[in-house]
Design brief:
alpha/beta; D-Maltodextrin-Binding Protein, domain 2; 20% strand
């Protein structure tokens, strides 16, 4: 009898083990690529952690997320190509690095389009369905979240403090490999140097470029402060990032899991918005602690705005994937929506 009892226990344990293995095997594997490290101060990570928490909650723990930070799976644009091939399911990347694959979505980076973060967020929300229609049709990926972390600003080396536009003349400024942004800096009369995000730190440290444009959050979390002395606010474009999913993979998921992931991503986006002000304040303090000097807003901001907006015709061509008329039609939709929001 005792042997029979022990045998039953062993069978029960074995069945439990098999069931546990089957349950683990049934989880949906999700390879997530990120261009940043796992710093809690980085705005992408703030969103990602909340996304994972909520997605597991809403799906009854259906996913097995595997995060590959610090560009382990390639730079941001390489991860999009991998998603199109089906080897990566989700990528977290700057908005401007998805735009080459879905040009119509490039409207988010238009120079001097937004006066406030609140205006940016309202327009992102109002354009959500239309923007995703472009994202899926043109690039094969769906935008799950659009995050913001203040404006894209300017940092420079010890030799080049920038307090007004004239101070920035003649210095090499790193911009993303994005034609819209390069066109903007050319319109300002500056010298943009397109450098891949993965190569930015080395380019700054080795003096290939004298400065770079982007959010101050990256300056802190990616240690750009080791090669930069001055931080200047030029407020030319909201610094945003996308969390995107391969559309073919997303649509292959069971409905409950798909809905859970989409819902969690939007809610994580709204959660991140509540943290931005605090993160921006901390970024300023950390830059100063690491020896950087904050120069504030440029003295002649209206001139930056005026010249920056002269790039719009060229930007239409970029957004229209070589067709300026098509790009302008995209912007007409955006501006009409913006005007409607302003009247509310």
């Amino acid at each position: 009898m005792k042997k029979l009892f022990i045998l039953c226990l062993m069978c029960a344990a074995l069945c439990g083990l098999v069931a546990g293995q089957a349950q683990a095997a049934a989880k949906i594997p999700v390879i997530v690529a990120s261009s940043v490290d796992t710093s809690d101060q980085n705005y992408m990570n703030v969103t990602y952690k909340k996304l994972v928490e909520l997605a597991q909650q809403y799906s009854d723990n259906a996913f097995e997320f595997q995060l590959f930070p610090s560009m382990q799976l390639g730079d941001e644009q390489e991860t999009v190509r991998a998603m199109q091939l089906g080897t990566i399911q989700i990528s977290m990347l700057a908005t401007n690095n998805y735009a080459p694959f879905a040009p119509s979505c490039g409207w988010v980076n238009m120079p001097y389009l937004f006066d406030t973060l609140e205006e940016f967020r309202a327009l992102v929300d109002a354009m959500w369905d239309q923007n995703n229609e472009w994202a899926v049709k043109e690039g094969g990926c769906r935008i799950l979240s659009i995050l913001d972390i203040g404006y894209r600003q300017l940092t420079t080396s010890a030799k080049h403090p920038v307090r007004k536009l004239a101070d920035a003349k003649g210095i090499k400024i790193r911009t993303p490999q994005n034609a819209l942004m390069v066109s903007t800096f050319k319109a300002l009369g500056l010298e943009p140097t397109a450098v891949a995000f993965s190569e930015t730190f080395n380019a700054l440290q080795q003096g290939v470029v004298d400065g770079q444009e982007g959010c101050f959050n990256n300056v802190v979390t990616l240690k750009f402060y080791e090669a930069q002395k001055y931080a200047t606010q030029i407020n030319y474009s909201v610094h945003s990032a996308n969390i995107i999913a391969a559309e073919r993979w997303l649509q292959s998921l069971p409905e409950k899991a798909r809905d859970a992931l989409v819902r969690a991503s939007r809610e994580a986006m709204y959660y991140e918005r509540t943290k931005v002000a605090g993160m921006l304040e901390t970024d300023d303090k950390l830059m100063q602690q690491h020896g950087m000097e904050l120069l504030g807003v440029v003295e002649d901001l209206p001139e930056w705005v005026r010249l920056g907006r002269t790039a719009w015709p060229k930007c239409y061509e970029v957004i229209g994937d070589g067709n300026a008329e098509k790009g302008k039609a995209v912007m007409d939709i955006v501006l009409a929506k913006k005007e409607a929001l302003a009247k509310k």
